[in-house]
């Protein structure tokens, strides 16, 4: 990545300036320049190589610049500038997510983590208020100084009294950036369209639970002649995109879910209870990864068909397969027919991304692109179908329904809501206070 910046500084811009006043991001700009000088002193970068990138263009409400997209796709290290405003910014969450996908791809391909995100404290944020992607970073801010850990860079940069602590913190931060760049070189990615990217900070204040379930055979129970290189001693070892990836697909899926502020758990479909006849309330959203070769086992195929018929929309189904696997290509017609017969409702209902995922995902690139949409669809269906739990002290109640046009008598101008059985056929009205689990 010779033309990419050494690091990318991701920050939450202050409110827009008005009336030609001072630059609201002046102090962040000064930090960026000091950090670039420190990184340059610690490296042997060729002359003219960009040391860092800081977006100074228009912010939320506009589009990413072409240079911003290229820099996110080619920088060696991502430096998020922590503050309460940072984690409330969808723009910053998209920047983090775009870089995190490169780190996830590196880990999937090498089975080694890439610690290429080096956080910096602009304004300290209590640990309990960090989203999961930030909470999971292995970084001790006290290494940059006790005063820095307590007050952040913003608390140091504005007072001459703390000039020494500020310069020490910047120098230590630069050393961490250089060390991360050399410890794990994350491969370049392609510039992404920010309009389709999710935020790494999710839509909830705290990490949400998610289950990743795998329906796949073990190496010891493969159909006759099936190559065992894609399998292991457990269904959770299934790696359909080998040799492009060296990491089991369930772990890759968990990494992607974690980058969306979910706290995933992993399980085998073979260990799950078979679907019952009654409709059970959900306990969490779920993503089910199905190996098409597993459908040659009649017992497993019957259980998957029962799940498909059980109307559990909070379980999103993904059917990964490898177009570069000669056996899967040769048996494509048979395996596709088995999938369509076993999971007919998944392939024909729901969002376009969910239908495409159930019909077959033929590459790791397509899997990484589809999975965030599939996860979000499962989460929304979970919220729609999970039991409501009113706040303490409030009695449970049924959702109200509108009962028709407005009256023209003394109560004109007022709509009336009654329980569900008041008027058959009336549309539901979402009660946003009580409908959330």
TrEMBL record:
Gene3D superfamilies membership: Toll/interleukin-1 receptor homology (TIR) domain (3.40.50.10140)
Pfam families: TIR_2 (PF13676)
Chain intervals for the UniProt region annotation (Disordered): 386-437
Name by which UniProt lists this protein: TIR domain-containing protein
InterPro entries attached to this UniProt entry: FxsC_C, FxsC_N, TIR_dom, Toll_tir_struct_dom_sf
Domain TIR: 3-148
Bias kind Acidic residues: ranges: 427-437
Taxonomic superkingdom: Bacteria
